C-alpha cells in the first residue's frame, strides 16, 4: 500500500500544479479544472485528473502514468508503508503512513512523481 499511496495523488496534483505554474498555457476552464484537481489530489481522489485525460488523452495519460510510476517506484524503494487502503497527502498527515522518516519518504516520492507529471505535461 505504501507505493500505491505515493502514486494515487500524482495525477491530479500534477495536472493542478501544471495549471498554476504556467497559467498562460491553459484556458479558463482548464485553470478551474486544475484547482479542483489539486484539491482532490490532496485528499487522495485521483479522479481529479480525468477531465484533463478527456480533453487531451495522449498527453495527459502518458504524463500521469510516468509520474505515478516514478512515485510508486520511489515509495517502494524507500519502503514506505501505509496502513490505510487509501492514498494522498491526507493519509500521511493523519498517520496512516508512520510518522517520522516514513512520512518524509512518502512526501519525497509523491513530490518527485508530481514534479515529473507537471513538467512533462507543461513541456
Automatic annotation (TrEMBL):
One GO cellular component term noted in the UniProt record for this chain: plasma membrane
- Fetch the PROSITE patterns from UniProt: PTS_EIIC_TYPE_2
| Keywords tagged on the record | Cell membrane, Membrane, Phosphotransferase system, Sugar transport, Transmembrane, Transmembrane helix, Transport
Domain PTS EIIC type-2 as annotated: residue spans: 1-123
Question: Where is this protein primarily located?
Answer: membrane
Q: Does the keyword Zinc-finger apply?
A: no
The record describes its membrane topology as:
Multi-pass membrane protein
Name the source's superkingdom: Eukaryota
Q: Where in the cell is it found?
A: Cell membrane
* InterPro entries cross-referenced by the UniProt entry: Bacterial_PTS_Sugar_Transport, PTS_EIIC_2
Q: Does the keyword Cytoplasm apply?
A: no
User: Which parts pass through the membrane?
Assistant: 33-54, 61-84, 104-122
Which GO BP terms sit in this record?
phosphoenolpyruvate-dependent sugar phosphotransferase system
- The name on file for this protein is PTS EIIC type-2 domain-containing protein
Amino acid at each position: 500500500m505504501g507505493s500505491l499511496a505515493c502514486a494515487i495523488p500524482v495525477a491530479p496534483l500534477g495536472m493542478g500544479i501544471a495549471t498554476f505554474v504556467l497559467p498562460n498555457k491553459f484556458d479558463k476552464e482548464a485553470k478551474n479544472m486544475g484547482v479542483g484537481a489539486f484539491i482532490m489530489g490532496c485528499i487522495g481522489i485521483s479522479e481529479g485528473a480525468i477531465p484533463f485525460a478527456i480533453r487531451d488523452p495522449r498527453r495527459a495519460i502518458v504524463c500521469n502514468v510516468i509520474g505515478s510510476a516514478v512515485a510508486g517506484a520511489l515509495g517502494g524503494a524507500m519502503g514506505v508503508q501505509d496502513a490505510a487502503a487509501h492514498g494522498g497527502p491526507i493519509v500521511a498527515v493523519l498517520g496512516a503512513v508512520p510518522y517520522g522518516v516514513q512520512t518524509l519518504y512518502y512526501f519525497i516520492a509523491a513530490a518527485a512523481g508530481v514534479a515529473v507529471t507537471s513538467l512533462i505535461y507543461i513541456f
